[in-house]
Amino acid sequence: MTAPAQPPATPDLLYSQDEEDLRSAVRALLADRADAPTVIVATESATPYDQGLWEALATGIGAAGLLVPEKLGGQGASHREAAVVLEELGRTVAPAPYLTSSVVATETLLALAGTEGALQAGDGGPAAALLAELASGARTAVLAVPFATPPGGAQAALATLDGTVQGIADAAVADVLLVPTAEGLYAVGATAPGVAVEPLVPLDLTRPLATLTLSGATGTPLAGPDASATAVRRGLLAGAGLLASEQLGIAEWCLAETVRYTRERHQFNRPVGSFQALKHRMAQLWLEVVSARAAARNAADALATGSPDAPLAVAVAQAYCSGVAVHAAEECVQLHGGIGMTWEHPAHLYLKRAKADSIAYGTAGRHREAVAELAELPAP
Question: What GO MF terms are annotated (predicted)?
C-alpha cells in the first residue's frame, strides 16, 4: 500500500533570536561606518567601497562566510541569516560587495565544491580553496555575467577566455572573476595578464558596474560546461532570492523615514502627515511593505531549506519586491517635497538603488513569466 503523501512544510517567516542578534550587530556597524553623509561622500570619490567597513562586516562579524560550511572556515549558517544582512545593507544602501561576492559567487562555488562528504574529507578542489578565502574575507569574487541576467536565462557569454562581458556588478573591486564560458567555469585573477576591467558610470553609484575584456587570459578551471551551467544557475537563483531582502530593507527605510518626516514637517499649523490623502498613501505603502516582507522571507527560507519550490518562491519574491522598493523610494522622494530632490538628502540614493535592483537578476516581468511557468498557470 502506498504511503500517503506528506504535506509540504510550512515556511517559517519569523526571525529567530540568532537572526535578530545578527541584525543588531550589522545595524550598529552600519550606523557607525555607513551613515547617509558617509555614503554620499563615497559615491563622489573614486573608491566607493570602504575597505575598513568591508573587513569589519566580513571578518569582524563573520558575514562573508555565512553560507560557507564550517569545514571551509565559514559560519555554516543559511540564506536566512544572509537575508538579514542584506536587509540591513538595503536600509543604508551601504556600498559593499556582499550580494555579489558572499552570496552569488559563494553559492556558485558551493555547487562545485562537492558533496558534504567530500568537504569533510578535504577534497573540494580549487572551488573549496577559493571558498575558504571568500569566507575569511581575504578575497572577494564576482560572477562575470551581466547584472541583469535572470536565473533561468544564464548562458555562457564567451566561448573561451577571450571577449567582452558588459555590466558586471562589483567587477571593479573584485579580486577574482568567475568567468563562465562554453568550455566551463574559470577563476581568473582580476589583475592577471590579458584581463582589463573598465568601470562604467552606473545609475546606482553605490554599486559600481564594469566591463570585462579578456584577451588571451588564463585562469584556473573549476568545472566543465554542464556543471558550470548548473552552478551559475544556482548562484543567480540565490542572488535573485536574497536581492528581495535588500529590496525589503530599502522599502522599510523609505517608509520609516517618510513617516518620521511627515510627522515633523508642519504646514497650516499641523503635521503634514495628518492630512488624509497622505495617510492613505502611507497606509497603502505599509501594506505593500508587509507583503514584501512575507515574500522575501519565504524566498530566503525556501533557499535555506533546499525546498523544491525555491525557484517559484524566488520568482514570486522578485516579481513583487522590486516594484515595492521602487514605489517606496518614489513616495519617499515625493513626500519629502523640495528637500527630497536635493543631493544632500539620501532619498535619491534609495531611488537609484531600487531602480537598479528592479532589473538585477531579471526584471519583474521576467519573474512573472517564471511564476506562470513554474506554477503551470496561463502566461500574464
Answer: oxidoreductase activity
In three-state secondary structure terms, 215 is coil
Residue 358 bridge partners (DSSP): none
Closest CA to 219 of 266, 185, 258: 185
- Beta strand 195-199 with 184-189: parallel, antiparallel or unpaired? unpaired
Check: pTM over 0.90? Answer yes or no: yes
**Helices 276-305 and 225-264 sit at what angle, rounded to 10 degrees?**
150
Cα-based distances in Å from 324 to 64, 147, 289, 293, 331: 27, 20, 7, 10, 10
Integer distance in angstroms from the first to the last C-alpha of the chain? Answer: 41
Task: Write the Ramachandran bin of 184: left for phi over 0, alpha for psi from -120 to 50, otherwise beta.
Answer: left
Q: Which residues make beta-bridge pairs with 189? A: 176
Q: Give me the helices (H) in 102-174, please.
A: 106-110, 116-120, 125-136
Q: Please report how the helices 310-335 and 364-374 are oriented relative to each other, as an axis angle in degrees rounded to 10.
A: 150
Helical axes 225-264 vs 310-335, angle rounded to 10°: 30
* Interatomic CA distance for residues 379 and 84, integer angstroms: 33
Q: What is the pLDDT of residue 116?
A: 39
Element (H, E) at 200: none
d(CA 98, CA 96): 5
Pairing relation of β-strands 141-143 and 176-181?
parallel
Q: Would you say 238 and 303 are in contact if contact means Cβ atoms under 8 Å apart? A: yes
How far, in Å, CA of 312 to CA of 299, rounded?
A: 8
Q: Which three cell numbers stand for residue 153?
A: 536565462
CB-CB contact of 54 with 94 (8 Å): no
Which three cell numbers mark 165? 562581458
* Cα Rg, the chain, nearest whole Å: 21
Element (H, E) at 14: none
Amino acid at 334: Q
Q: What pLDDT, in 10s, does the model give residues 284-341?
A: 999 999 999 999 999 999 999 999 999 999 999 999 999 999 999 999 999 988 888 8
Within 10 Å of residue 70's Cβ, how many Cβ atoms? 12
Whether the Cβ atoms of residue 181 and residue 222 lie closer than 8 Å to each other: no
Torsions phi, psi of 332, nearest 5? -60, -45
Q: Find the length of the chain.
A: 380
